[in-house]
Amino acid sequence: MTEGVPPTPNINPEILKSRKRAKRKIYSADEFVDGILSGNRTILSQAITLTESLLPEHYDIAQEIIGKCLPHSALSVRIGITGVPGAGKSTFIDAFGMVVLEEGRRLAVLTIDPSSGRTRGSILGDKTRMERLSVHPHAFIRPSPSAGTLGGVARKTRETIILCEAAGFDTILVETVGVGQSETAIHTMVDFFLLLMLAGAGDELQGIKRGIMEMADAIVITKADGQNITAVERTQGMFRNAIAMFPPPGSGRRPEVLTCSSHENRGISEIWKNIRDYIEFTTKTGYLEERRKHQAVERMHDTITEYLSKSFYNNSEVRLLLPEMEKQLFNSSVTSYNAALRLIDKYNKRMHG
Ligand SMILES: Nc1nc2c(ncn2[C@@H]2O[C@H](COP(=O)(O)OP(=O)(O)O)[C@@H](O)[C@H]2O)c(=O)[nH]1
Ligand SMILES: [Mg+2]
């Protein structure tokens, strides 16, 4: 619904739909950019949908919008949040978000979930767990596109970050489910990476690889309330010991191990303070800017890899030869290396020959 326009009563929904479609088409890239810069959420949402679109005709306009929004997008704080399902991420984001909003900031919450095995139920569940945020005028919640490879979803999330920042959101939370590779992807798009952990479970149990712990800028043990408090404190001690043995991180600041209860709203402002201190510290040392520059370089490489891999596997000669090479590998009549070289050779000849 467009802001400020009263809803039209009792009109055939099909007509409304086609009008909506027609309306989308008339925006030029510049109109999209103007709408985004003026903070129009409807236009922001539509622009995000464009960047998520798999239709080739949307690609160019989406890229033009992103390019024009980019200069308006550097001043926010980008925070990544990960943890296994049930760690308390959604509940935490609701409580944490309210603390951030109370300072007059504007908050966008994006999620990355390439598993996309999400049922409608769990999305609804998340909405009810972020019930305060979902109705707050200065908060914007956007779930990740449900289809696509992790690389694709990650790229779209980065682009969504840029659009949200241009629309005036100065605090970006990117949530990811900590069960796969998505934590590594999230790490390349945020300034601060927060790992939520449950008490009483070994880290293997929580599906958190050691590498993820080393990426964290802070670790938070959740659900520090009721009967759980002792277990939380024990886990906190365990993680502090573990972290003390890691090599000092590039930021020059060792990650803290904090605890919180989202239900009782305890420990939440301390976490926000920890993040702000980190941002202030790394801004002074120049590390933050350096981190963002490294991320930009990494993004370039990711884009090249994604592009080349797509171009390779879509190549008609490659597609013809690939099943044959796989068969030969099963018969052990070729080595993987040689099979790969033959395919690459075909590809190169097709592209340049
Ligand atoms: N006791 C307690 N339970 C919590 C707290 N935060 C979340 N939970 C519960 O843990 C469950 C999973 O929370 P949710 O936010 O959906 O976790 P997510 O899967 O990581 O997003 C829910 O039943 C929550 O009510 C907390 O601070 N204290
Ligand atoms: Mg959740």
For the structure shown, list the relevant keywords.
15 helices, Single alpha-helices involved in coiled-coils or other helix-helix interfaces, 353 residues, 7-stranded parallel sheet, binds guanosine-5'-diphosphate, 57% helix, Rossmann fold, binds magnesium ion, alpha/beta, 3 domains
How does this structure look, described?
This protein is α/β, with parallel strands linked by helices and 353 residues long. The chain folds into three domains: 15-69, Single alpha-helices involved in coiled-coils or other helix-helix interfaces (Up-down Bundle), CATH 1.20.5; 73-285, Rossmann fold (3-Layer(aba) Sandwich), CATH 3.40.50.300; 298-352, no CATH class. It has helices at 13-26, 29-37, 41-52, 56-69, 89-102, 120-129, 131-134, 150-166, 182-187, 210-215, 229-244, 268-285, 287-314, 316-330, 336-352, and strands at residues 77-83, 107-112, 139-142, 171-177, 192-197, 218-221, 256-259. The protein has a seven-stranded parallel sheet, with helices on both faces. Strand 5, helix 10 and strand 6 (218-221) form a beta-alpha-beta unit. It binds guanosine-5'-diphosphate and magnesium ion. Residues 83, 85-91, 129, 222-223, 225, 261-263 line the site of guanosine-5'-diphosphate.
